[in-house]
Write a structure and sequence with these properties.
The chain has about 240 residues and is an alpha+beta fold. The protein has 6 helices and 17 strands. Helix content is about 20%, strand content about 25%. Helix 1 packs across helix 2.
Length: about 240
């Protein structure tokens, strides 16, 4: 696919199209090592583009896996709180990025950040039922009645939830794995609270068939590969 140079520079450096044109005109942009001063120059997938010595991506969209720490809100901008986008290193920032879905401020784990609205809608749509997997630490154990309520499709207030999976990860059932097919407001916490159980810590460990990279420390992030994206998009609820 061919892309106009000024559009690419604007997108990758998060600057206006006019600023991108000015940068190109100054001779600060090279394609395959040669300076290019024409804003409407078109580059292809095999071309190497640099601006001010920085090599640019030519992907139309990007997909980022972040290990979200507590204390950050899932938003593009917030006047009072730090957002997950504030954690991105400068070289990964570009116009249009947003968190695909939300994690509570105190919830940690797999946060997917992208600029692909159609992809985000696809994985968040209730019609797709893409699994979201969480590890929950509880203040007291759950029993078989709680497990059955999760798995049979819990009634929560006026809502009838989709069936969810619940299994214990330790002997006293105070650490649990929860798999949801939807993403209602504070859903995991509210489901346990119905049974008098408080979630003391919550971490998302997977979206669809893609697990959080164990090598990513809190606040760390990396690009998601095309093969990894398929683990999300091709995953079906069990």
């Amino acid at each position: 696919m061919m892309t106009r140079l000024d559009k690419l520079i604007s997108r990758e450096l998060n600057i206006s199209r006019n600023d991108a044109k000015a940068l190109i005109k100054k001779g600060c942009v090279t394609v395959n090592g040669a300076p290019v001063t024409s804003s409407d120059f078109k580059c292809g997938d095999g071309d190497s583009v640099e601006a001010d010595g920085k090599t640019l991506s030519k992907n139309e969209f990007v997909y980022i896996m972040m290990n979200k720490p507590a204390g950050y809100v899932s938003a593009t901008d917030d006047k009072r709180e730090k957002t997950v986008l504030d954690l991105l290193p400068e070289e990964m920032k570009r116009r249009g990025l947003f968190p695909a879905g939300r994690l509570d401020k105190d919830t940690t784990g797999f946060m997917l950040i992208t600029d692909d609205g159609a992809f985000a809608h696809g994985i968040l749509s209730p019609k797709r039922h893409v699994d979201k997997t969480y590890i929950a630490n509880l203040d007291k154990p759950f029993d078989n009645a709680v497990k059955a309520d999760f798995e049979n499709g819990m009634e929560l207030g006026n809502e009838k939830l989709l069936h969810a999976e619940l299994r214990a990860l330790n002997k006293d059932s105070t650490v649990a794995e929860v798999v949801l097919r939807e993403g209602q407001y504070h859903q995991v916490k509210r489901m346990f609270k119905k049974h008098g159980i408080t979630v003391t810590a919550l971490k998302r460990t997977a979206i669809g068939g893609l697990s959080l990279d164990e090598k990513l420390g809190e606040g760390g992030c990396r690009y998601i590969t095309a093969d990894e994206l398929e683990k999300i998009t091709l995953q079906n609820s069990r």
